Amino acid sequence: MINASLKQLSQALAAKQISSVELTQFFLDRINRLNPTLNAFVTVDAEKSLNSARAADARIAAGTAGLLTGIPIAQKDIFCAEGWRTTCGSKMLANFVSPYDATVIRKMEGEAGLVSLGKTNMDEFAMGSSNETSYFGPVRNPWDNGRVPGGSSGGSAAAVAARLAPAATGTDTGGSIRQPAALCNLTGLKPTYGVVSRYGMIAFASSLDQAGPMAASAEDCALLLNSMAGYDERDSTSLERSAEDYARDLGQPLAGLRIGLPKEFFGEGCDAEVMAAVRAAIAEYEKLGATTVEISLPNSHLSVPAYYVIAPAEASSNLSRFDGVRYGFRAEDYGNLDDMYMKSRAQGFGAEVKRRIMIGAYVLSHGYYDAYYLQAQRIRRLIANDFVEAFKVCDVIMGPTSPSTAFTLGEKAADPVQMYLSDIYTIAVNLAGLPGMSVPCGFAGGLPVGLQLIGNYFAEAQLLNVAHRYQQASDWHQRRPAGIE
User: Fold this and answer.
1) 152 catalytically annotated
2) Fewer beta carbons within 10 Å, N or C terminal of the chain?
């Protein structure tokens, strides 16, 4: 069962070949054995997980189960879950136990019947590209324990790559699902902004954050997205759209598919072996009947500077609620209320979070708002318009997910700019609010390489089919790190 797909696990549960309790215990045992090395999970509660599994078995026995009922899943520790410690990778929330469920948790566990195995490690408040900013220590990549798994959803990525869980949730603000998926040989999907509710998902940058699935294959991601997506009146940014089956197009032929190749993605700045793997994957698509066309995203080079104005600005606003008064960390010694605020935030936040809060406060301040924040929003519109023009001549855009394979722990920790450039190919997708995904497409130096697929608004079903057809013709997504059996 260790490498079984979600559909295979569902069939085994329905046929009574295994119970949800047995399946859940199997993965809990793996977490107990392998997590001390990987540090992928920060919270595991076997009793809660097994209670959910027993409830799932009861639903299966009663004939009221859904397709995913009883299947264990890992949850990124950015989602509030009732009765679970929800830390967001920060000292500020290290002892916070959520009194309610995020909509994603409610839909996946309460409605679909999935079983939460625990909460996965992450960069603090989702700020990072390596999972090294977590208060609970770095996550290690199962492909090489001396390397990063990517971030901020690195715990989820490492958990699935090492098969501590069959699948996981992640969030993507500037590439935080796609980049760790690429570095850990997984399939990861960032849906169109507003397709998945953000209610109960601890906010980093509200106009950019989006939840999505991480799994071995596109088919698994499609099934998970079915359980995650949907309108939520409690989220003002949730889109009121009819429900759809994201697995409906899986298996459709790719004849006539037009693949756009941005010239800006295929120039300098990408590792040669990574680029070779990406080009080989595109050649495979041509064998499947697709055609390629060169396109241009002329403002894409501005995506990183625009993002690192907009995201910190929104973060400084969102994180102002963590003041030591109502919940979260509070400094022990302070002289007055102002002193309590300052000491609680200084001691409760890590260096990267404080850096972004200060940048955000600066660009929003009087005299600088127009010069920085407003200008960044104008550039954001230009970037989105570039994609609108590109999709007039192509159906899907392809290129590298990350400019390199997984780098070593500590390699970029002292250079924030180099760390920020890890997301150079992914950030524009979030600024435009488009769906994007990463799929395994080969190896460079023994480490995984990801191919990024970008679709038009609400084209998740098409993207998933494009990925699925490639995965039917290749086996990169089936490769597993050595020593995890």
Assistant:
1) yes
2) C
